[in-house]
Amino acid sequence: MSGKVEEDDGAVESLFVASESGADPEPKPRVAIVDGGVDGDRYCRGDGHFQLDACAVTLVAAEAIAAVREETGIDVSDGRHRRNIVVRGFGEGMDDLLDAEVRIGDALVRPTRRRPPCAHVEALAGA
């Protein structure tokens, strides 16, 4: 889908920054999105685990985090999902955000691809 997604289609639920590869993501009340990603995040600083395949800013649906908890009993809402921005209100429609302009606070981002959980995330979550 190409186009613009309006602000009221969803909401930011929480924000996380991991300052270096393998570091626990820290919840933040606010983040600055700058050229290269989320200011202070490992990928913006060039220290991400998958640096060659990095995404500047990553999103995850709060509904997906809840589904993981319901299906597996694993709660990754503390940031172990390794994504920067948790959004609510898109749920199954997260793919509709691909290639659309999405306003998050003062920033305009364009999600370009899915970032499914990887073995690194599963190991960190205790799966």
From TrEMBL:
Residues 1-30 are annotated as: Disordered. Residues 1-11 have a biased composition (Acidic residues). Gene3D superfamilies: PK beta-barrel domain-like (2.40.33.20). SUPFAM superfamilies: PK beta-barrel domain-like (SSF50800). It holds the Pfam family MOSC. Residues 24-127 form the MOSC domain. This is MOSC domain-containing protein. It comes from Halorubrum tibetense.
